[in-house]
């Protein structure tokens, strides 16, 4: 009896396999049916690398290949020290999402193969009948292919998200680094000027003691000294906070790292937000095709094996029933493609606006940097003249202190502007996704 049952099973499997062979794999690639049970050729990224341009179905992804060829514009020096330290400590949550999407795509890449499963039913006589059902889709209006396209686009979306996440992490770290450097530079200006201000405060104390000046003048000078000390303390606290936050996201200490690096002005890389929108559009189109195919009838080869015998045949059915709203549902599926294209165009416009705004801000900051440097030099010269006149008895101390305060303020602004310029340059680079080498993600 067992010999007969095995013969029936083989007959049913052979019938379904023969029917499947007539249609072949939807993408025209000859594969072994045993790949459905783990014998396929799914391609995964090598250990330590999350991105791989070859997808589980054996095709090449242009989007991921483009991400892999991106090169960081960060020159060797302080920027790369910070970047390497924070990437070494990256939790890489986006990478886990990418690996999950890759596994889903690998599963979908085999959806053209037969499915095998048990079926249990209760007859009208109260007897339980068990059977083994084998199904193979022969024609499905492109639904299986659309499902594979959706899974592939899902991997591409996750890959772009990982690239964005990595670039954003480096940008956050470099922003903290520059904030710390800017605060330290401003504090250093105050530290260098503190001796002169303390000297003026001492002069006023002596003049008040000698009855030459009033206590009001001494209070004015003392207040300016106190303000300078408070500004320096605030700058040092801000620098310490930024350094501590940077240390929390770094795998190596960065206390000794200092300086600003020059970045290239012309960046030609496609902004990552646009690349992601294009991948999402491809995913939406694939979803719409799968939804539309669900309303159309398909042909499936079915083999059924029971204790009493076996059989094979063809069935024609649609996944979605046809009702009064079917027309609208089909129209909605078709409209999804247009909506996806519109979202890509809108994203491209939004990114272009952001880039133009950042480029305008960068040009303004560079102008301010040059202008403030000139103003600071002029203020220092003016202060030197006032100080010489004060020593000669031609100027009062309060007059000199006022000019000195203006000079110190311009020095602080001149010290901070290079860091603000560097921050905007890094924002543009992050928007274009060129802070990290693609093959190192």
Could you explain how this protein is built, in words?
With 441 residues, the protein is of the alpha+beta class. The protein has a single domain, classed as Outer membrane efflux proteins (OEP) (Up-down Bundle), CATH 1.20.1600.10. It has nine helices and four strands. A hairpin with a 5-residue loop joins strand 1 and strand 2. The radius of gyration is 35 Å and the shape is elongated. The N terminus is likely disordered.
- Average pLDDT, to the nearest integer? 79
Proper CATH architecture: Up-down Bundle
How many structural units, i.e. domains?
1
Q: How much helicity do the residues have?
A: 55-70%
Protein name: Outer membrane protein, adhesin transport system
InterPro entries: TolC-like
GO molecular function: efflux transmembrane transporter activity; porin activity
Main location: membrane
């Amino acid at each position: 009896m067992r010999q007969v049952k095995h013969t029936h099973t083989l007959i049913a499997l052979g019938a379904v396999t023969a029917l499947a062979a007539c249609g072949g794999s939807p993408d025209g690639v000859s594969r072994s049916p045993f790949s459905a049970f783990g014998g396929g050729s799914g391609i995964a990224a090598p250990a330590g690398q999350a991105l791989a341009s070859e997808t589980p179905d054996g095709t090449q992804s242009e989007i991921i290949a483009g991400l892999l060829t991106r090169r960081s514009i960060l020159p060797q020096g302080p920027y790369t020290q910070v970047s390497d330290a924070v990437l070494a400590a990256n939790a890489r949550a986006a990478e886990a999402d990418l690996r999950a999407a890759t596994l889903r795509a690998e599963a979908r890449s085999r959806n053209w193969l037969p499915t095998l499963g048990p079926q249990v039913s209760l007859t009208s006589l109260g007897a339980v009948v068990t059977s083994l059902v084998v199904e193979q889709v022969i024609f499905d209006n492109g639904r299986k292919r659309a499902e594979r396209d959706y899974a592939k686009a899902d991997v591409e979306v996750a890959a772009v998200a990982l690239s964005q996440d990595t670039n954003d992490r480096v940008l956050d770290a470099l922003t903290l680094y520059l904030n710390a450097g800017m605060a330290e530079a401003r504090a250093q200006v105050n530290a260098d000027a503190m001796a002169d201000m303390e000297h003026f405060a001492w002069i006023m104390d002596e003049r008040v003691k000698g009855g030459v000046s009033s206590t009001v003048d001494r209070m004015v000078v003392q207040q300016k000294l106190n303000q300078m000390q408070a500004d320096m303390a605030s700058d040092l606290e801000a620098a310490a906070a930024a350094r501590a936050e940077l240390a929390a996201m770094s795998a190596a200490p960065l206390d000794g790292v200092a300086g600003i690096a020059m970045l290239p002005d012309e960046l030609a890389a496609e902004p990552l937000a646009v690349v992601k929108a294009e991948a999402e559009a491809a995913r939406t189109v694939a979803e719409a095709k799968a939804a539309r195919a669900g309303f159309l009838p398909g042909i499936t080869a079915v083999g059924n094996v029971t204790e009493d015998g076996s059989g094979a045949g063809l069935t024609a059915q649609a996944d979605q029933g046809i009702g009064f709203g079917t027309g609208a549902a089909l129209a909605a599926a078709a409209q999804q493609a247009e909506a996806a294209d519109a979202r890509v165009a809108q994203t491209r416009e939004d990114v272009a606006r952001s880039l133009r705004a950042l480029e305008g801000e960068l040009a303004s900051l560079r102008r301010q940097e040059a202008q403030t440097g000139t103003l600071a030099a002029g203020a220092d010269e003016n202060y030197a003249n006032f100080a010489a006149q004060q020593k000669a008895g031609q100027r009062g101390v309060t007059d000199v202190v006022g000019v000195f305060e203006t000079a110190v303020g311009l020095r602080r602004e001149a010290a901070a502007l290079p860091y603000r310029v560097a921050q905007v340059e890094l924002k543009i680079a992050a928007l274009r996704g060129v802070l990290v080498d693609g093959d190192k993600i």
